[in-house]
Amino acid sequence: MRTARGTVLLGAAAVALVASAGVGTACRPRVEHARAESGPVRYHCPMHPHYVSDKPGDCPICGMKLVPAKSPSPGEGQAGPVAGRARVDLSPARRGVLGLRSEPVRRVELQRTIRTVGRVTADERRLHHVHTKLEAYIEHLYVDYTGKFVRKGEPLVSLYSPELVATQQEYLLASRARKQLGSSSITSVAQGGVDLLEAARQRLLLLDILPADIAHLESTGEVRRTLDLYSPVSGYVTQKMATHGMRVTSVDTLFDIADLSHLWVLADVYETDLPAVRVGMPAELGLSYLPGRTWRGAVTYIAPVVEEKTRTIKVRVEVDNADGQLKPEMFADVALHTARGKGLVVPESALIKTGERTLAFVDRGDGGLEPREVQVGAKVAAGVEALSGLAEGEDVVTGANFLLDSESSLKAALAAISPAPPKPAPPAAAHAH
């Protein structure tokens, strides 16, 4: 009886042990599956998210303590439309802590301003070299120093020339002949006297003798030993080569006179900005020591060649200088304004330049911030022209976007190294099990 009972107890224990073993064997895959699903704990550097370790310690790059990396939940941290970046979801409280701000992408008139430096110079069309048309001697100087302002018609020098004296005498003889021959009954003889006087008059005019001096010669009948040479324009004497008693010929320059009421400004524009520059575009000039004072002009010429050493192109701006504030050889701040029609504009602070591409984060309005790769154009007055990647009315992050970029990069890196969640078993396999 005892033997039978012991045999029964032993069998029951064996069945229980087998059952227990069966349960443990059945549960082990579930436990291992749960561990695989949760994944091992990994650690990363807050400053260098690409460095990941399977144990705590210090970052070998910056020495900061490694922190546990949160395993992304299904769907979180998956790469968005930009490789290496992921969508970031922030609560309103965290947005306030980070100081996150956003502005809409706008469609505006694209006004671009190119700022550069220009050198003030005289208008080459208003430079005058004063010569004499004959061989003469300078008897008197009315303009005796460089920089003197002269008006048109003012005398510059007094000249003595034997040729000029002889020409005056010829004119007086022709004048007397016209009076004598004018009473002749023969028409050709009378006309000959008129023609002779007119020829002598034209010779004096070609020697730069003024009509008033010729009239004085004819009225007085006296030959003047010296005659004055007058300024052909109003302006400043920039160079004076004439001296008292100097012998001059027709090849000698006596004075250089510059009309500085209208000037040129030669601005240096980089070749990268040349497509935006055109003849006729408005320009503004300013001087650093005269704040608030501006001169307005227009581009009238663009040089056909590039300066080899500076890689710039000379652009000529013409300005009025009636008050004489601008002086040749001054340096001026030049702003060239151009209109390019309508286009999308994004604030410059919203752009993140990585070296190979330009990124921006779009605020979706549901708490999510989506990275976008943007192609940008030229800088304009309202910001930077957005050629592609953004749409009108979308809100782009303009504050704390570098912190946001680090978070997005970190999530994308963690999503790349974290084990993917297991796929659910097919219904048929689960029913068979």
Polypeptide structure, described:
This protein is of the alpha+beta class and 433 residues long. The chain has four domains: 2-35; 84-109 and 342-412, conserved putative lor/sdh protein from methanococcus maripaludis s2 fold, CATH 2.40.420.20; 113-123 and 261-340, Beta Barrel (Elongation Factor Tu (Ef-tu), domain 3), CATH 2.40.30.170; 128-258, OB fold (Dihydrolipoamide Acetyltransferase, E2P), CATH 2.40.50.100. 27% of the residues lie in helices and 34% in strands. It has seven helices and 25 strands. It has helices at residues 2-38, 92-98, 162-181, 187-206, 211-220, 401-417, 427-432; strands spanning 43-44, 52-53, 67-68, 88-89, 101-104, 106-122, 127-131, 136-141, 149-150, 155-160, 226-230, 235-240, 247-248, 253-258, 262-270, 282-286, 294-302, 312-320, 331-346, 352-353, 358-363, 368-373, 375-380, 383-388, 395-399. The strands form five sheets. Strands 4, 5, 20, 21, 22 and 25 form a six-stranded antiparallel beta sheet that branches. It has a six-stranded antiparallel barrel with strand order 6-15-18-17-16-19. A four-stranded antiparallel beta sheet has the order 7-14-12-9, with no helix packed on it. Helix 3 (162-181) packs antiparallel against helix 4.
